[in-house]
User: Fold this.
Amino acid sequence: MAWYAIDAVTLLHLVEQDLSPGDGHRLVAPDSIRSQVMERLLADVRQGTRRDADALRLHERMTGLKLRLLGDRVSRTVAWRLAREHEGMTLRQAEYLAIARLQAEALVTIDETLAALATGLVPLAGLPQLLAPAPEG
Assistant:
């Protein structure tokens, strides 16, 4: 079984496209991820780029996707240190990297900025790797 850390942008993409991790893969993220997705959905509704009913449907799909959510002292401390060590990295970005470093084999993100920040700090994997079944053995 492989654990993959994901960010809010990637979670929203997964639910918009009705995608699920391949058999044998599990998802892990900071405990704030669902609120971050909901903030993005609310902004879309307020801007008129998404209907309220569609946002709520995506919320239901997101809630049904199994995620291990973390917000423990160790992951917050690692996130703090990462943000302090890397100028320009937000604490939110650092949280994803901390979770990936502590609890996952790799970070999966479609956010190019986060991927660039992660380079050299945590392993990265692509969506195809997350969606494919885990290799046997």
About this structure: The CA atoms of residues 31 and 69 lie 5 Å apart.
